[in-house]
Here is the input.
Amino acid sequence: MTDAHLSAALVAEVARKTAVSWLRHDGRTHPVWHVWSDGALCLVADGPEQPLPPLDDGERVEVVMRSKDNGGRLVAWVGTVAVLRPADEAWEPTTAALVSARLNLRDLAAAPDDWAESSRVLRIVPTGELVEGPGDLPDDDHRDVPRETPATTRGPLPRVLHRRVRRRPRLS
Here is the structure.
């Protein structure tokens, strides 16, 4: 087997075993839940689903995947984005795979129609180009600056009733 075949097999195997990856686009990293279907990473974005920046047909993104065993980075690869529409041939099998993997859907049968109205269904097809792989992962920590948000955790601490009294043990 060639290196390209091994890389493709590694990407497919890791994508099947994990449900969360990170997309690098325009200098930002975005976590996404996904399914692997027909040789592509499939996901739903926008509307009531996960937020993503605008991605157009043919655009290239980097996908970072981690090991399910230890949670460490395992592979990063380049893929080409395809935005699916209900008239496309791949719409039915892709949305069926997404519906089967999506947790907490209100109506399984109506989900594809809801996605067609308010969300985008994306397929990211690997180009075969590995950015990082086993044996050549970088040593830096990959920490990112938190995004600006109006959410806050500062405020009064919750009041605790009936605290347990700690008594010192008798030594004699």
About this structure: The chain has three helices and seven strands. The chain has one domain: 3-132. The longest strand covers residues 120-132.
